[in-house]
Amino acid sequence: MKGMNRVVAESKKIAMAALRMAMTESREEEAHLKEGFGRHGIHTVAVDYGGEYLTAIKKIVERAIVSAKREGVIKETHGDEGAVAGATREALSQIMPKAMGLNIGGKIGIARRDEHLSVAVFFGVGLLHLDEVAVGLGHRAVPGETNA
C-alpha cells in the first residue's frame, strides 16, 4: 500500500503541473513555472489554442504532440506520441458537454516526469462575451523517461 500511495502522489503532482501550465496568463509566467518544474525533474510545455470546438479537436491533439516533442517533454516514439494523443483526447472529452457547437480559447498544458504524463486543457467556452470556463485533464503511463 505504501508504494501505491507514492504512485498516486506522483500522478497528482504531474497532473497539477499540467494544470498550472494550462492556467498561465503569459509567456513569462510559463517560462517561470517551466524553470521551477524543471528543477524538480518535471518537463513541461504550454500552448495556446482557439477555435470552434468540433473542428479544433484534431488540431489540438496535433499541436500537443508537436509542442511536447519540440520542448523535449516526449521522444519521437509511437508510445510517447500515442500517450500525448490519448491524454489530450481524454482531456478534451471532459469539456465536450460545455463546448459542443461553441468556440473555445485557452491553453493546453503538458507535464511529464518518469512514466507519468498529464495533459490539461483550460479554456473559455462560449459566444461573444457569454463565456463559460471548462477544464479537462488526461493522464497516461508511459515507459521510460525522456532525455530532455
From TrEMBL:
<protein>
    <recommendedName>
        <fullName>Hut operon positive regulatory protein</fullName>
    </recommendedName>
</protein>
<dbReference type="InterPro" id="IPR036482">
    <property type="entry name" value="Regulatory_HutP_sf"/>
</dbReference>
<comment type="subunit">
    <text>Homohexamer.</text>
</comment>
<keyword id="KW-0694">RNA-binding</keyword>
<keyword id="KW-0805">Transcription regulation</keyword>
<keyword id="KW-0804">Transcription</keyword>
<comment type="similarity">
    <text>Belongs to the HutP family.</text>
</comment>
<dbReference type="InterPro" id="IPR015111">
    <property type="entry name" value="Regulatory_HutP"/>
</dbReference>
<comment type="function">
    <text>Antiterminator that binds to cis-acting regulatory sequences on the mRNA in the presence of histidine, thereby suppressing transcription termination and activating the hut operon for histidine utilization.</text>
</comment>
<keyword id="KW-0010">Activator</keyword>
<dbReference type="GO" id="GO:0003723">
    <property type="term" value="F:RNA binding"/>
</dbReference>
<dbReference type="Pfam" id="PF09021">
    <property type="entry name" value="HutP"/>
</dbReference>
